[in-house]
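Reply to dn_fold:

You asked what the input looked like. This is it:
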Amino acid sequence: MSQKMPAAVHYDHKDGAVELRDVRVPTIGKEDALLEVRSVSVCGSDVHMWRDKLGHKPRVPVILGHEFSGVVAQAGKRVQGFKEGDRVASETAAEICGICILCRTGQYNLCPQRKGFGHYADGAMTQFVKVPARCLHHLPDGLPFRKSALLEPSCVAYQCTAVNTRIRPGDFVVVLGPGPIGLLALQVARLQGALKVFVSGVGEDAPRLDIAVRRLGADRGINTSLEDPVEAVKSFGDGLGADVVIDAVGISETLRQSIAMVRPGGQITKVGWGPAPVGFSLDPLVAKGATLQGSFSHNYGTWERVIQLVTDGKINVEPLISRVAPLEGWHEAFSKMEERVEVKAVLTPNGPI
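and this is what came back:
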């Protein structure tokens, strides 16, 4: 094995500060595995880091990539349950304290000391990545690497829609934002028994709204450049609004829309990020007695369920995969996702999959 490898490195807090660099292959500890990366998908946060538009400042330099799968190339001496050659996917919590009440009760995704791959710990947009064995999950033989790269965003959507949100059979659900998380949340809402699911997006999202309706079972796509999303939602049913709103965008305007379109006593779950201040009154939320909550990341139980759901096709990730490209094609992949021409790009640092 060569001691050097190419990696997509975010090296400064400024626009465009990502480049391919030669870096050292990491050395693993006794409880780690060295993973040969076979697939890593591009997240919207990767694009935001490239454009210096995140609401927080990640570590620099850092190797990007937190949605990945591969093959165990080496296992530490204390690793149990995984061996060289195993096909695996990884969770994103590269570092946790392991001793706080959240870690001890399985909510390590909320550990105050958590550090995620590709943000505060080196990620997988490279050929090899060091991963704590506690993050690993075995992949079924029937799940190809091109799809397993999308397990992580599928877990984000499942945690948001099935764990942190209560959707009952017959509910009316609205998903704001037809990005990868929104399109996956749409599918989980269907699995939860939602009667109707609307998906809303801006004009540039038209191709993604088409995927939502034509391929993933949304009942309606709302183009906010052509119609008012609040009026569109309230035109359905009894006119009181949606039982559940999933905000997969995260900006102030979509939060305002969420509060306006949720029915009295309904739920809003915000999974999208947005650094801008709110700038409007939250009194309508109080008047409606609605619930507003956040959802962040995922944990072990979610992963095990989602792996089976994706393998069985109950969560269909294939329509989201717009391109599969070598690591050297990262720039075009980022650009196409930024332009919303494509939904999801999968990079293959160790060659075709």
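The chain has two domains: 4-150+317-348, 155-294.
Hope that clears it up.
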